Every structure is written in C-alpha cells, then in structure tokens.
C-alpha cells in the first residue's frame, strides 16, 4: 500500500506539470489559428502585418474611413472601404496585397480627395484657352471627354474639339465637321452649340443666305455616332420661328436647349418686327430638337443703358440649374468693349413660359475689367469640372479696348478669345460671374 500510494502521487505530479506546459503553449500556433478564424481576411499570417494589426500595410492605407480600417470589426471591412469610390482598386482591401495601389490609395486623380471628406478637385487652366474662338461652348459629356465648339473667325465652318481635360482642348486638333455651302447656309456661321439629347448629338447654329448676309436663321445638325467627331452629320433643317420682317428676312440666332421637369425648351435670340431693337431673348417648348411648338415667349428685351450701347441687343442665352432656381445668362450691347452679361432667374417650380416668372438683373453681372485688361466679356455658358464638384464659366473676351466706332467693324475683328474660370456662388445661392480674370494660368479648386 505504501508503494501504491507513492506511485499514485508521482502520477498526479507528472499530470499537473504536463497540463501547465500545454497552457503556456496556447499562445503559439493553436491560439493563432483561433484568431485567424475570427478575422475574415483569411490571411495565413493571422493578419498581423507586422504592424500590431492596425492594417497600416506597406502604403499606410490612407483610406481614412469612418472605422479607420482599424480591424476593430474583425477586419471584415463590411463597409467595403466606403471612401466614395468603393475602393475600386481591384484588391477589395483584403490585406493580402497590402492595398497595393502604389499611391497610398489616393485615387491618382490629380486632386486632393480624402476618404472621409467631400470630393475635391484642383486643376490648372491657362487663359486665353483658345485663341480667336468666339461664342464658346464647352460640354463635359458622360464619356469623360470635354467637347469644344465655337464661332471660327471666317464664319465658314463648324469645328469640334475633344479632349480629356479642359486644358487639353487648347492643343488638341480641331476637326471641321460641317462646312458652309449652298444658298441658305453659306455665310455668317455663328455660335454653334453641341447638345446630347436622348442618345443623339445635335448642333444648333446660325447661318445667313448667299443672297443676304443679314438674313440670319437657325439650323440643326444631327449625328447618331457615340463620338460626335466621327460619323456623319445630317442637316435637319431650319428652326422656324414666327418672327420675321415685312420682307420675310429674319435675324434669328444663338439657340440653346435645356430640359426641366420632363419638358425640353429652346432659348434663342430673335428680332421682333414690332420693336425698334436688334434682338430679344425668347423661350418655347420643343416638339423635337429642330421644331418649336410655335408660341414663343419673350423673356428679356434691351431696356437698361448697359444693354443698348451702340446696339440694343439681348442674345447668347445659357442655362444653369442650381439651388432651386433656373438661371439664364445673356449678353447685351455691341460686341466690342461694351459687351456685357446680364442674368435672369426663376424658381424651379415656376411656369417657365410665363415671363412674369423671371427676375432680371438691373445691372450687368459681368463686364469689362480695365484693371484685369479684359474687355467685352460675353456669350457666356456653364460647364463643370471633371468630377462635377466645380461649376465653370466659359466666355469670350478681348485683351485690349476695342470700340467699334473708333476701331472698325467688331465682327471683322477676330481677337475674341475663349476663356474659362471658376463660377462662384453667393451665400444666398446666386451665381457670381465676374469679374473676368487676368490672362495667365489659374488654379481652379473645390471650395
């Protein structure tokens, strides 16, 4: 019995020592396996990443998401790295490749985007952007490209440019996509605008007849190609408006179109036979892109002193919709240093075909800046930055003081150059167009 008792004690002591050793080893491979099962990254190295599991990885993974990607959620990244672009780098942030964008996940878009803040952009533009191109129109399409079209100085053809940036338009080749011809569309090819309507490209432009260079009418071209520089342009004919002089001649130009609440409208400049003025701005619904309903409403006529300098002109309307309102910029007076920009606006809920819905600025919102050496800014339009965070103002102007009575015919002077600058907004939601900025390189950034 004595020996049996001693043998029992020895077995118990050895068993106790064995259990203590197993408990100590639990911090090794077996415990590590258990942690990996709790971490859905599935990394064979237990997602330690040699950084105390802070998921800093080789590139610091600067996606400063709301959860700081700190693996406190078992590192399942259930929010898919929601930095606004869903971390579409192709690696789903699985830590197996340490988010190897090569750029610390900064999205390489030449901007200052951060994952926790709003989308931001910054890019440079050198003004003038394009020389000798008046009545500029710059459209940013859903394909990511900018398209630029304007009045060329000889008034003989329509040229189109396509680039992947605003500044790229300055150097890219211009393609002549249509040339003046025949009797009705042979002179004064003015103010072309490119629009994409229901999957088809359209160009609105003005042209004069061979018999009378001042019989100005509106025409429309159509192109069904995905790239408007390619394919063929079909002449859809004249946009017929009811205004005409007693001899049948017309002075109809500067058409633009926009859609609102499912209705497509046309805005344009026309000459009423009942007014002793050059042009007014009208609006009407479109039946199709080249046909108005035929009941135009006059939205503005020249009435203030800044609208009747040498010529009583309201022309070149352009639309931007922001802050619960619809804004229309337009240009006034002679196309020299006295050219200026006015503004109309209406509530987005208003009847846009009721002239009483619109409020008109009594002062120009953009005009000559002697201080900045920019003269006669006008025929403005609106575009956007590549990511849509910045509104852009596009217009033409000269860089010297040109007055028609003193210096000759303004239309024969080709020094109206296309320019781009940021469109700012006031605290009460109104656009701030002016002043025109001095020539040179500017940096356009998100507020």
Structure keywords:
four-stranded antiparallel sheet; 447 residues; five-stranded antiparallel sheet; mainly beta; 9% helix
Explain the overall architecture:
This protein has 447 residues and is mainly beta. The protein has helices at residues 2-25, 29-38, 404-407; strands at residues 122-127, 134-140, 146-151, 157-163, 175-179, 187-197, 200-208, 216-223, 234-238, 253-260, 263-270, 280-288, 291-292, 297-300, 314-322, 325-332, 340-347, 359-360, 375-384, 391-398, 417-422, 424-425, 431-432, 440-445. The strands form 7 sheets. Strands 10, 11, 12, 13 and 14 form a 5-stranded antiparallel sheet that branches. The N and C termini lie far apart (93 Å). The relative contact order is 0.10. Mean pLDDT is 82; it is low at 1-11 and 13-114.
Please describe the topology of this protein.
Blueprint: H1 2-25, H2 29-38, E1 122-127, E2 134-140, E3 146-151, E4 157-163, E5 175-179, E6 187-197, E7 200-208, E8 216-223, E9 234-238, E10 253-260, E11 263-270, E12 280-288, E13 291-292, E14 297-300, E15 314-322, E16 325-332, E17 340-347, E18 359-360, E19 375-384, E20 391-398, H3 404-407, E21 417-422, E22 424-425, E23 431-432, E24 440-445
Antiparallel strand pairs: 1-24, 2-3, 3-4, 4-5, 6-7, 7-8, 8-9, 10-11, 11-12, 12-13, 12-14, 15-16, 16-17, 17-18, 19-20, 20-21, 22-23
């Amino acid at each position: 019995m004595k020996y049996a008792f001693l043998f029992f004690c020895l077995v118990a002591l050895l068993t106790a020592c064995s259990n203590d050793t197993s408990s100590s080893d639990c911090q090794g491979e077996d415990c590590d396996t258990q942690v990996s099962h709790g971490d859905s990254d599935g990394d064979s190295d237990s997602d330690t990443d040699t950084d105390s599991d802070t998921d800093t990885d080789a590139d610091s993974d600067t996606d400063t998401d709301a959860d700081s990607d700190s693996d406190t959620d078992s590192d399942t990244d259930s929010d898919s790295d929601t930095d606004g672009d869903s971390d579409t780098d192709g690696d789903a942030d699985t830590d197996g490749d340490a988010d190897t964008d090569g750029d610390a996940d900064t999205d390489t878009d030449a901007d200052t985007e951060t994952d926790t803040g709003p989308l931001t952009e910054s890019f440079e533009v050198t003004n003038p952007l394009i020389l000798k191109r008046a009545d500029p129109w710059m459209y940013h399409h859903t394909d990511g490209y900018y398209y630029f079209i304007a009045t060329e100085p000889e008034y003989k053809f329509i040229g189109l440019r396509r680039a992947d940036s605003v500044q790229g338009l300055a150097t890219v080749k211009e393609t002549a996509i249509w040339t003046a011809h025949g009797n009705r569309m042979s002179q004064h090819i003015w103010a072309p605008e490119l629009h994409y309507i229901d999957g088809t490209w359209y160009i609105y432009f003005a042209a004069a007849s061979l018999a009378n260079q001042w019989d100005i009418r509106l025409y429309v071209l159509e192109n069904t190609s995905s790239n408007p520089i390619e394919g063929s342009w079909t002449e859809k004919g004249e946009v017929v408006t009811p205004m005409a002089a007693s001899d049948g001649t017309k002075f109809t130009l500067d058409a633009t179109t926009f859609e609102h609440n499912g209705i497509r409208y046309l805005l344009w400049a026309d000459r009423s036979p009942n007014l002793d003025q050059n042009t007014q701005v009208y609006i009407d619904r479109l039946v199709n892109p080249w046909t108005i309903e035929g009941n135009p409403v006059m939205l503005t006529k020249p009435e203030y002193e800044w609208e009747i300098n040498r010529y009583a002109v309201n022309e070149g309307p352009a639309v931007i919709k922001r802050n619960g309102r619809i804004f229309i910029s337009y240009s006034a007076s002679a196309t020299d240093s006295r050219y200026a920009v006015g503004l109309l606006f209406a509530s987005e809920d208003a009847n846009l075909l009721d002239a009483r819905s619109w409020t008109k600025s009594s002062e120009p919102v953009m005009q000559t800046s002697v201080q900045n050496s920019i003269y006669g800014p006008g025929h403005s339009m609106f575009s956007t930055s590549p990511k849509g965070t910045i509104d852009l103002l596009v217009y033409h102007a000269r860089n010297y003081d040109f007055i028609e009575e003193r210096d000759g015919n303004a239309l024969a002077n080709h020094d109206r150059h296309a320019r781009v600058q940021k469109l700012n907004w006031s605290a009460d939601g109104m656009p701030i167009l002016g002043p025109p900025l001095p020539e040179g390189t500017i940096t356009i950034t998100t507020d």
